[in-house]
Design goal:
alpha/beta, Rossmann fold, five-stranded parallel β-sheet, 5 strands, globular
Amino acid sequence: MDAHRAEARLIVVLVEHAPVTRAGIAALLSAAGFRVIEAGQTGEAWRMLETLPDVGVLVADLDAPDGASTLELARKIHERWPLMGLVITSTHIRHLSPSDVPGDGCFLPHPLPVDTLLHEVKVAAHQITA
């Protein structure tokens, strides 16, 4: 793997509608060495992804006002960028079928234990194996 691709995996797009929650997750991911690009809605995230090269992971919340479109965003991302890792979260949904998250993506219910979140983002970024 060349150095450029390794660096690319360090970029995470975080979609979370609640600013305080988004800031907290962004701080955790940043402290773990990821470059975090924040979005409050799925549409905003898609526009960012179209202009940002080398995003390695999407972390997205299903509880956003446009939450129904979060899984659609994940499907569109997987179709266009099949190697991008996907981590889907929710406070209200406790279980999600593995087939609902495209590719090798995962689902994490809130509260998000820090170690679990960091582990799953690293797996999604292909930095470690499951």
